[in-house]
Amino acid sequence: MASFFGEVVFPVSRAFWDEEDEYGATQNSVNQPQFSVRWLKEKPPQIDTLVVIEGEMLIDFSKKCLCENSEELCLVEDDNQTKVCSLYQVNDNVYLCIVSPRFDTKFSAKLVDKMGETISSAKNTISVTCRHISQFKNKNTPTVPSFLRMLTTENGKNVCKLKEPYLEQPNIVYGVAAGVLSYAQFMELPSVLYVLYTDSFVLDSLSAEPLLKLFTAMNCTLHNVTFAGKDFFSKGNLYM
């Protein structure tokens, strides 16, 4: 398996090239979606920090924390006018890009390429994605409900004040978040990627703590978040 700008490429199982392979390649190129950018409000000339959120369990929580009452500034849509990502303004310096949980990650490279102008206009980019802790490959897995690992571009080590251990080999990251980091590395832009590993498939008050630390480190004002009718730090309550 190879990866380029976050796109997952599955190798052909046969060890030779034949007409069926050529036909399949043609079909794949025909079926590639086309993306378009549509600004709903005035386009900012420059963005200080662009935050990209990918992963279904992160989306509602991130919007609730960072931009509960914000309206969409920009949309990226496919040929069927299906929304694949949205841009919100958090404050004067921070903008939040939410990737749709229904987006097919095998088209991540194409989407990141379409987002290239916005990524390039940002002084810094912070991408956040999530994985179940069972996918974390290391002899010493932390015995906590959730934890963060990070990757940075060469000049992205100081993008965010929150410093976490670097993601250990042989762990891999794919999708739009990985694509944004790869794009930034190629364009020599400051960028950092955080991966949230959790022991469940929904955020509760404990597994969300690393995210709160990250959002606080981004100098964002956090909106109140509650879990199942109780205070946020009540153990074991699911995010509502």
From TrEMBL:
Top-level taxonomic group: Eukaryota
Keyword Lipid metabolism: no
Biological process, per Gene Ontology: proteasome core complex assembly
Alphabetized Pfam families for the sequence: PAC1
Organism: Habropoda laboriosa
Record keywords, A-Z: Chaperone, Proteasome
Annotated protein name in UniProt: Proteasome assembly chaperone 1
Family listed: Belongs to the PSMG1 family.
Molecular function via GO: proteasome binding
GO cellular component: endoplasmic reticulum; proteasome complex
